[in-house]
Write a structure and sequence with these properties.
heterodimer; A: about 300 residues; alpha/beta; TIM Barrel; 4-stranded mixed sheet; 10 helices; 9 strands; about 10% strand; B: about 325 residues; 5-stranded parallel sheet
Amino acid sequence: MTESVETREGLDYYRPWPYDQRPRIEWPGGARIALWVAPNIEVYELNPPANAYRTPWPYPFPAVPGYSIRDYGNRVGHMRQMRLLDKYGIRGSISLSSALIDHHPEIIELCKEREWEFFSHGIYNTRYTYGLTEDQERSLIQDSIDSIRRATGEAPVGYLAPALSHSEQTIDLWAEAGGIYTCDLFHDDQPTPIDVRSGKPFVSIPYSLELNDTIAYVVNKVEPRRYGQMIKDAFDRLYAEGATSGTVMCIPTHNYQVSTPHRLRAFEEALEYITGHPDVWVTTGREIAEHYLANHYDAALASIDAVNGGPR
Amino acid sequence: MAWTTPAASGPLDYPNRHYGNDHDRYEWSMLTDRPPLTWPEGDGLAVVVVVPLQFFPLNPTGRPVKVQGNMTMPYPDLRHYTLRDYGNRVGVHRVLSALDAASVVPTFAVNTRLFEREPLLRDRIVARGDEIMCHSWSMDTPHAGGLDEADERELVQRSVGRLRELTGAPVRGWLSPGKLNSPNTPDLIAAEGIEYFCDWVNDEVPYRWNVASGELWSMPLSTEISDTFTLIDNLHSEESWADQVCDAADLLHAEASEQGGRVLSLTLTPWLLGQPHRVKHLERVLDHVTALPGVWSTSASSVIDSARAQVSG
């Protein structure tokens, strides 16, 4: 692409807000920490359209290595991860490629039975936001909302852009479509009010990219047992800090990563460790967002204004 | 047969958004929705060990794509050529000693050109009587998109046909270099009488493919716990590789006892695991796996035969 694009130096979704100068968050039941597990349940196309900004597969059609391991996730891995979450009393918050509703409805039914949360992760993880007009991105978002509402009876309120591909409008469009939270910002360990152009109450919910299994295993090439230890270590620190502040911990997973036979044990040990602690609110992204908006959002705005010397 | 996975006309057009896969080469189903498999021996965990015997030419073309392990230095790359050759001279014997000591059966995946060049190795392998499958002509003949169909047909015919001549073995299985396929690979190998291939890592047990002629099954062969992926791609330690395989074996063993037959599929690359500092970690893995009760150590085709008999009725 040779066209020039107007870019900005930085983001202005949120303002400075020092971690140690915030009002305390009270989680339900007096919990110190809100824990949520976010399985990404995705569909990758074998023959996706070309995108000028990002190439879906590293090989020409058919890209067997990448496609087939992701197919493994839905054929084999999903059930394995779901049974593990059942065992530890965890409801997943699904980051859903909405086309999975059409391709693999069996998985949707299993998750509905368990009252898991469904949030939007676009249509396919091979369809990127890059290059879409604002109207096209709005259509993509609305398609995902309508699809999830038809399948589950409830519209999703959270968004993780497909394949973490964003535009400058992504978060604004999600808020305007009825969303209340985003998973696309990695700037904090607590919920954060987000300034969207519509002025609607809207929050960022921590979704740890560092603990995301694909980032850990594929990008950072972490060994499975070390990944389990990383999760435990993150929990220990957030649990300790949460005693006085109220923290959020997210474990984002993929059924083709964490559910493979050589990795599940390390993940299970981490879940067993975490759920063995008292004062952990094991919940969903939506419940965290709703609780925060209802109980802490206004105080957060006031605190942010105060530390910044007034409203923006 | 053609792939029915039409291209989208634009970024919001989804021509394959329907029930099942976005192509028709195999059926969509979740593993747990299928009738459980039982193996003819043991309690449910089959162990299939694939030992690739590979030839990396000193003058690779790198077309249509370059497969891992090929030459990387300016010609002549003595360094990588001889490191790969190490596997066929030394490493393979070390790996086989470990397998034989543990009474674990190998299935060989052979680059046909290697057995033309190395009759001493060929005769040793053939004399063992273990299964031999075809691994294409060499590690410089990837079956990737961009390969002309007629050229690929000739390549498959030459690789499979010559390997049968050289070994007298039936050669029922196939492993593509780098587990890459062109759109035509499954049909072309099935046309040569290949009954199973190990390229698609999307299941834990065999399942059937739709091909233009013959009958083709997919054999699970994990990339994720292969030695090359763990040690080279991820730069994990040998200890970690062994831990990962042992953890995988434990999980599949437990799952098999509850849900039916599973396959622990290992790739043991002689030029990598056969190095003197690595083979003891293989021995630890073999000790661990063979100590699991009810394990069935067998060839890839034995697992295929058993699955085919049960699924096809």
